[in-house]
Every structure is written in C-alpha cells, then in structure tokens.
Amino acid sequence: MKYFTAAVEAALLSGSARDSETLKFDALFWNEMVERSRYVLGQKAGRPMLSAITPR
C-alpha cells in the first residue's frame, strides 16, 4: 500500500506541474509514477525502498 500511495503522491505532484486541458494519466504516465515510487527497485532488493517523492 505504501508504494501505491507513493505513486499517487508522485502523480499529484508532477500532474500539477504538467496541468493542461490535454493532460492524460495514461499508461506511460503511470509507468513513470510507479518507477518514481521505487516499487520495482524494492521488489528486486527484497525490502522496501521508500523515500520522499519530489517533483521533477
């Protein structure tokens, strides 16, 4: 659940910076947010790898 909330937090932070009439939360966008949540890195390491999400 922590990775999910980290991905949503990243989406809200970066989404506000990218806000426009054509903003879409498509698969490419969510792939980037999951990467920023460090979920895959944590799975490979076998332990949680959470840290603060910062806007890019």
Key features?
56 residues, 3 helices, mainly alpha, 0% strand
Task: Explain briefly what this protein structure is.
With 56 residues, the chain is mainly alpha-helical. The protein has helices spanning 2-17, 27-36, 39-45. The protein is 59% helix and 0% strand.
Output the number of helix runs.
Answer: 3
- DSSP strand (E) fraction? under 5%
Number of domains: 1
Number of strands: 0
Percent of residues in helical segments?
Answer: 55-70%
Main sheet characteristics:
none
**Which structural class best describes the helix and strand composition?**
mainly alpha
Indicate the mean pLDDT. Answer: 77
- Distance from first to last alpha carbon: 23 Å
Order of secondary-structure elements: HHH
**Overall 3D shape:** elongated
Give a written overview of the molecule.
The chain has 56 residues and is an all-alpha fold. It has one domain (2-45). 59% of the residues lie in helices and 0% in strands. The chain is built from 3 helices and no strands. The protein starts with a helix and ends in an 11-residue tail after the last helix. The model has no long low-confidence stretch (mean pLDDT 77).
